[in-house]
Specification:
The chain has a two-stranded parallel ribbon. It has 1 helix and 2 strands, in the order E-H-E. With about 60 residues, it is largely without helices or strands. The chain has one domain. One of its GO terms (biological process) is GDP-mannose biosynthetic process. Pfam families: NTP_transferase (PF00483). It comes from Klebsiella pneumoniae. This is Mannose-1-phosphate guanylyltransferase.
Length: about 60
């Protein structure tokens, strides 16, 4: 079985002022009700995979 690894780091400086150091781009809701991180995890539903591993900055754990 595959182990999905989701990279969710960085400050998202190109999305400033929406994205800031304390509220990075992966937590933004650009389209709909869910954040970009939630949308990414939702895309994995229905697949036969291990629980995804999310890699992020320590202050956003």
């Amino acid at each position: 079985m595959l182990l999905p690894v989701i990279m969710a780091g960085g400050t998202g400086s190109r999305l400033w002022p929406m994205s800031r150091e304390l509220y990075p781009k992966q937590f933004l809701r650009l389209f709909g009700q869910n954040s970009m991180l939630q949308e990414t995890i939702t895309r994995l539903s229905g697949l036969e995979i291990h629980e995804p591993m999310v890699i992020c900055n320590e202050e956003h754990r």
